[in-house]
Amino acid sequence: MSPATPEQILRWGSATLHESCPERRTVLPGAIRPAWPGAQLVGPAYPVKAAPGDNLALHWALLRAAPGDVLVVDAHDADHGHWGEVMAVQALAKGLAGLVVWGGVRDTAQQHSLGFPVFSSRISPRGTAKEWAGTQGAPIRIGDVDIAQGDLIVADADGVVAIPGDLVPVTLERAAERERKEAAIMADLRAGSATLDVYGLRGLDAPFGD
Question: Which of 4, 47, 157, 189 would bridge 140 by S-S if both were Cys, CB 3.0 to 4.6 A apart?
Answer without folding.
Answer: 47
